[in-house]
Amino acid sequence: MSKKRKFSEGTEGKESMHIDSLSLMEPYFLRKVLLEELGDNGGSSIHKPLAVAVHAVLLESGFVGFDPVSGLQTDRFDFPDEFLSPVSFYYSLPALLSVDRNDSSGSDASDYVVLAFLTLGRFIKVYGSLVIGSGIHKLSLDEYRFAPTLDLVIANSAKNDGSFNSNPEDEVMEFWKIVKDELAFPLLIDLCDKTHLALPPCFVRLPTELKFKVLELLPGADIARMECVCLEMRRLASSNDLWKQKFKQEFIDDDFIFIDYELEAEGMQEWKKLFHSWWVSRNERNRDDDDSLFYSPESRDYELTDLRSPSR
User: Fold this and answer.
1) Which CATH number fits domain 26-200: 3.40.50.1820, 3.40.50.10160, 3.40.1000.30, 3.10.20.740?
2) pLDDT tens digits, residue range 6-50?
3) Partners of 64 in the beta sheet?
4) Secondary structure of the chain: what % helix, strand, coil (to 5)?
5) How is the chain split into domains, by residue range?
6) What residue spans of 61-197 are helical by DSSP H?
7) Is the Cα dihedral 34, 36, 37, 38 positive or negative?
8) d(Cα 95, Cα 81) in Å, to the nearest integer?
9) Cα–Cα dist 115/129, whole Å
10) Which of 79, 165, 244, 249 is most solvent-facing, going by the fewest CB within 10 Å?
11) Global pTM?
């Protein structure tokens, strides 16, 4: 049996509970791809931005554009304004394009993914499969739902301070989840299986809802560590609702707790930063308590009793 080559997704190291920039999160990556493909005006139709957004999800999932004629990677696609008839685009994986054609594993650049786009009224239909030998994965996207969000993403491209004028993040995340779970990951698994690439880790292959359920069961500090695993975990572990839940679970009984209820009512409370500040304060208080236990004269008898080796 031939040794499987490794499919891997980049990770980023980070200290526990570090509050960092969100510049690599999906809304910003999506904005980058939209601007590269469409320019500042977003194109002349609502069909094209939605197709480019699907393209962005596949890029973030590890795929690269592919030209089946030359067998080479392509960095740009010529997306039409309308999809009156099916329009196809092709994708592969970097690990496949770097394989020697004489590799004995039996796979080469002839294995790739085909995406076909077609519009039906307000819906854009996406059909994905391997070029040979796989089932078809189907996706239906409502342009009335997602097109306004993409317009907001493009409109905010003029801002260079790392923030959005509005809050399209939640809808972008929902779009990302739908495309990744129903299209990108199934195609990735099909292609890895066909070409003998090692499959992505089992946890990564779980549906997004199950991954989120796992995070909900973890303490806040462990959720912060999970952000170091991969970009998808970084996205899921940055959910404001998740950090709100963790904050109230771990700190709601603390004395003198302060929450800006006006910000909370407006949905503007940054719960991760609030959790981080209280997490640091709690650790400092615990450290002070330990110091007083071991060094105050009043606790000396307790200290000696507590630290004696157990009798054998």
Assistant:
1) 3.40.1000.30
2) 544 433 333 334 433 333 467 788 888 888 888 765 556 778 889
3) 92
4) 50, 10, 40
5) 26-200
6) 94-97, 143-155, 169-179, 185-195
7) positive
8) 32
9) 7
10) 165
11) 0.66
